[in-house]
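Exercise 7b. Backbone tokens:
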């Protein structure tokens, strides 16, 4: 089955019929609620905050932001952006509490620098990876989005973008674009290796507790394994040799988790080959 972003641009795909169908689906409402609450958990907001909802659609996520109890640091004030006029029209009909803006995030974020405490985005960022014609550059759209998002957040702010990449190349393109914009970035994956797998790009703006390292965001969470894929160094400060067995076995395990076909290991895996000269 084709992915929605491969059929039409979002402003055309989410017409009046599709927008109403999306908003009234109980399954989508439940999934959206779970993902928004997960994003809030990753934001770790301890007081009422001003949040940008990127790709807000009909306001399903925004309703959750508005309903956070004072005991959990809410309620939050939010501003939603979306490219679909039909989605925003339904949000107005549903009388959501947030302010709404019709805007293409691929053209940048039109807010004053440091305006927001945090940002969330549910199932929207992957739309920027598709080019409707030869004049559209996904790298450029992602760069404009993340650069604008970085500028609009206060120092120490965070953003969480849940997204569905088509493949590993798209996943890297999105995360690398965020890093180039200045964010500290990392990806949290729920239910890895299953059909219900969800990816959350956790972004930090320097100046806060995380200081650009998202491992501090998730270190105390239950059922979370931190897999640091940055360059590994030994205690002596030397870079880990890529030819040793431990490194090779770890990389093979990572590839298997991504569904790649990996050659079976043996007692010779990672063993140095004897050089023979004549």
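Sequence design result:
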């Amino acid at each position: 089955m084709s992915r929605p972003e491969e059929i039409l641009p979002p402003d055309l795909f989410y017409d009046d019929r599709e927008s109403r169908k999306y908003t009234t689906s109980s399954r989508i409402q439940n999934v959206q609620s779970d993902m928004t609450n997960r994003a809030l958990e990753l934001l770790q907001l301890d007081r009422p905050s001003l949040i940008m909802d990127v790709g807000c659609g009909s306001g399903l996520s925004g309703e959750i932001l508005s309903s956070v109890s004072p005991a959990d640091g809410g309620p939050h004030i939010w501003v939603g952006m979306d490219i679909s006029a039909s989605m925003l029209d339904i949000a107005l009909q549903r009388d959501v509490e947030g302010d709404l803006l019709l805007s293409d995030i691929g053209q940048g974020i039109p807010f004053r620098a440091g305006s927001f405490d945090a940002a969330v985005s549910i199932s929207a960022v992957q739309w920027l990876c598709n080019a409707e014609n030869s004049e559209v550059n996904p790298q450029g759209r992602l760069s404009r989005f993340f650069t604008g998002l970085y500028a609009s957040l206060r120092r120490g702010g965070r953003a969480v973008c849940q997204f569905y990449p088509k493949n590993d190349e798209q996943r890297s393109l999105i995360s690398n674009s965020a890093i180039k914009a200045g964010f500290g970035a990392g990806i949290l994956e729920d239910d890895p290796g299953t059909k219900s797998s969800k990816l959350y790009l956790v972004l930090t703006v320097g100046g806060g507790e995380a200081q650009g390292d998202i491992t501090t965001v998730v270190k105390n969470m239950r059922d979370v394994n931190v897999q640091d894929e940055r360059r590994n160094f030994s205690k002596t400060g030397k870079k880990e040799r890529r030819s040793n067995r431990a490194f090779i076995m770890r990389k093979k395990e990572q590839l298997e988790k991504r569904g790649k076909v990996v050659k079976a290991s043996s007692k010779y895996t990672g063993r140095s080959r004897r050089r023979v000269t004549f």
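Instructor comment: Residues 26-43 form the longest helix (18 residues). The longest strand covers residues 153-163.
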